Amino acid sequence: xxxxxxxxxxxxxxxxxxxxxxRTALGNVLRTGAVIKENNVRRVLRGRVGEITVYAKLxxxxxxxxxIEWDNTVRMAEKGLPVPRPLAVGRLAAEEFVVVEGIAGAxxxxxxxxxxxxxLPPDEFLARKRRYLSAVGKLVRNVxxxxxxxxxxxxxxxxxxxxxxxxxxxxxRVRAERVSxxxxxxxLARVVMAFxxxxxxxxxxxxxxxxxxxxxxxxxxxxxxxRMIRKRFRSRTKRCLMNSSRFHVSRIGDCRVxxxxxxxxxxxxxxxxxxxxxxxxAEDSRxxxxxxxxxxxxxxxxxxxxxxRTGEARGSRGEQLFVKRYKPGWRGILKATxxxxxxxxxxxxxxxxxxxxxxxxxxxxxxxxWRWGLLVEAALVTAKLDLMPLNRFVEETALGPSEKDELTxxxxxxxxxxxxxxxxxxxxxxxxxxxERRTDSDVPEDGGRWTFYLVDLDGxxxxRVSxxxxLKNLAQLDVTVPDQLTAEHRRRFMAEYxxxxxxxxxxxxxxxxxxxxxxRWWKVRREARGxxxx
Length: 534
Hints:
Low-confidence stretches: 1-6, 276-308, 441-447
Radius of gyration: 27 Å
Number of helices: 15
CATH class of the largest domain: Mainly Alpha
Strand order of the largest sheet: 1-2-6-7-5-4-3
Distance between the termini: 82 Å
CATH topology of the largest domain: Transferase(Phosphotransferase), domain 1
Helix content: 40-55%
Oligomer: single chain
């Protein structure tokens, strides 16, 4: 853009390079528009100019993106591609902005499909989803044929309007180039990744037909999507250890606090008991099976490097919190200083589970106390879950035959999902899985009555789960789940986890061999707990 094309309002520090709106109305939108999204790089505002809704994107950093997005939007609109109408580009103080017209009745495609899954019969939902996939495939083909490559084809950048027309937004990562076959496959793999929350086997056929791609692309597209998903999970997991749109790292005295941005770090230091205040209820948490933790988090191991002291606390807004403190010995201090402490591992694991869509107690903060360059103490603060662990739930709750069957199938699917997502819990016993049973009127959008929460995460690992580790987890569960789930239920669990065509008898023998030491240890522990209660 040429400097002579600029129009400046010096008093308001508003500079426009191109403007198809009234400047006064534009200034009002930029200064008083509703903030609908904000992160470290940009914020998005929504406002009204006359009869139309407009969206303004202001870049705090990487200001050139505003001009890039304007140029891409103009060129793609001239090619007849479904993109928002560009209205203005310029600078407000230190932020550069781009403004586009809102699309009437448009919504993000993935949330729209999730709502449809709740509201429509399965056949109608499947037909709508595959119609959308075919339309997305056609749109991507048109974009490529027009000589554009969108480097961020994720679900939030695909909108669908009331006429089921697909629109493309967020165009600052579009490049004008001849699109190679490799990049075409990569774009379709990104679409598959975007639809992963509603994806079912066979959906790729609709996408390929819409794009007009040969069937030999199917394998590379699905493998590429799996790699992208794993990479995305790793990236989102690491964000909790750095300053990002959701997390922040603060220094409070000799403490380093990793926390969510909406959480006050000073409050977390006090809750963790590292600012003169003690953790309330540490002694009572041993009997609190519904305290949002597992029964293995017991207070009789205070000061031992492998376990921590647990307790409850109340936040400044009245929310119930759960605290687990780690006070390692010298060997544990050295490991923690090098970044391998159990507290930090539990913090990363909890956020990694949420990134993968696996329920757990929401992590609020990790507080680490450093002295003489060594990490001497840590505390993990999470939300409290008023739920029972699986072993107590099965033992103490009166479940009918059909409910036991549903619980068994849902548990098998949950454990299989963990392993398929590369999640390995080295202590996957019944007391480390909390159970939530929903009523018919409160069933979530995925249709599941049962929700399982994974806790006690300081030994959890991400990565490929080998067959031996899968069998070890199944052996741990089988030993610790009470006999109210009969041998028939356990066999049904195996069939659901492995598939009815798998060699279930061979797997059962291998699991039995792994249980030899576990059975004796768990029996002694259960008897000791019973004697303590008496």
